[in-house]
Amino acid sequence: MTQAAQDADLAALETPAILAWRPYPPRNLPDTRSQLGGLPLLSSPADWPRTQDGAPLHFLARIDCKDLPGARGGLPSEGLLQFFARIDEDMGWADDERQSDHCRVLHSLEAGQLTPPPAELPIIQGGYNDWDRTLRLPEEPPRTAYPRWPLVFAAIKSWPDTSHWGPNQDEEGTNRARAAEIARATGEAPFEEATPTWLNNPARGGKALALPPSAPGERAFPQAWILCDRVARCFARAAIDSQQQPARAKPAASPEEADARNALLAEWAQLEQSARAWIRRAEAAGLDAPVDPAEASEFAEWLTALANHSSQPVRSRVCAHWNGSMRRGLEAAIVYCGGHPAAAALVPLDIFNQLRDQHALVRTGERDGQPWLKPSDHHQLLGNHQSTQDFRPNDNEVLLLQLVSDYGVDFMFCDVGEIHFWIDGDDLAARRFDRVRANTQGG
To answer: What whole-number distance in Å separates Cα of residue 399 and Cα of residue 377?
Structure first.
């Protein structure tokens, strides 16, 4: 297929849409009521949407209609659109005839008040969200509200997925067009993933422990208590999980083996307590607060001691998971920064830039020796939807909002899938948002 023929096919398939994205890095974020996660604005706690059987739904997003670009395809010009859905472990909505009962969309002209979730709101994903699986301590309450991150919008062209194409369309060409369109709309440069220079395994290749560097004249890592908290949580969870392993193992074959096992458990318990001590100190200081240089040095020394632990089994396990724990902790701190500008102002740009993977909208690289450009899945209003399972809407339905799995705010729908909120065109014109339905797609 010639480039001219491909361009003609793309032009025939394109539909106007609105891109909704999270500005990155989380520095100087816009002062807007449009956001992913956080808390809804309701006139009363009694207005929190529920299913027919009374179960409260999870709050996902809020869109301030005045933030939308001019070509809004029949969307309201004022007021707030707030999106709720049931986010359980399997999200098998398609098996239920009452698809609309799994979601609610509220449109209001008055802002209301920030409203905390009902006490009986279920755990997100039944506890399989990233926070509950890898960061939450056993005695802490589970997550029922998503982290907050502001949203901004831009008009874009959209194209249907491959299942809607004719026989002559080219997937790579369409991906390049999508990527170029998103890059144009956002002004973001394509991201090429690489392991951060300061992220290495101290147990491999004789490498010394490296921590994120600081610019000359700036505070040394960790600059903010959120960094201490999230990294310490990852090591605390590793220690807790390691203490639980012997309970699943075979009984000790001898008293000597039992003594060795108990000694190892004591080492893990000590590591857990040292990590918990840092978590308590972070909470007492405030996660948004700067870390005193002396305390930052103490935290770095604690990490160095972990990498050189006197117990070989402990040292081996800690170092084997070092990159994962450090990266996961810092990525979780970035998630927090999306809703906490004071903390974000303290985190070095080097950390934001080198851990941009979960936030990049366009990726570049090399595939089969050729330059490669690919758009990430993205949140969107109107236009052609993305579908991992060839979902097709009913005639005259409008894509009110598409939310995709987004690690930057701990969104996970099905298995890296998406949620589509649909409204009939006539209902949109009549502002009958009570008639919205939603579906989920995923592996």
So the answer is: 16
Q: Which residue is associated with the tokens 């409203």?
A: 115
- Give Cα separations from 348 to 103, 140, 249, 279, 354 (angstroms): 39, 29, 43, 21, 10
Q: Is the dihedral of CA 59, 61, 64, 65 positive or negative?
A: negative
Structural domains of the chain sorted by starting position, each given as residue range(s) with its CATH number in brackets: 3-191+359-441 (2.30.320.10), 225-355 (no CATH)
User: In a 3-state reduction of DSSP, which class is residue 33?
Assistant: coil
Say how far apart CA 132 and CA 126 lie, in whole Å.
9
Token pair 């948004």 is found at 288
pLDDT tens column, 388-419: 666 777 788 999 999 999 999 999 888 778 89
pLDDT, tens only, 362-373: 888 766 666 666
Give the pLDDT confidence of 342-386 residue by residue, as tens digits: 999 999 999 999 899 889 888 887 666 666 667 778 999 998 887
Are 69 and 20 within 8 A, CB to CB? no
Binned at pLDDT 50, 70 and 90, residue 195 comes out as confident
CA–CA gap between residue 147 and residue 157 (Å, rounded) = 29
Instruction: Round to whole Å and give the CA distance between 199 and 213.
Output: 11
Tokens 């399989």, located at residue = 128
- Dig out the tokens for 290 from the structure: 């700067």
Distance in angstroms between the alpha carbons of the first and the last residue of the chain: 31
Please, which pLDDT band fits residue 41 given cuts at 50, 70 and 90? very high
Neighbour-count burial of 29, counting CB atoms closer than 10 A to its CB (0-12 exposed, 13-18 middle, 19+ buried): buried
Q: Which of 141, 125, 113 lies closest to 40, judged by CA?
A: 113
- 374 burial (CB, 10 Å; 0-12 / 13-18 / 19+) is middle
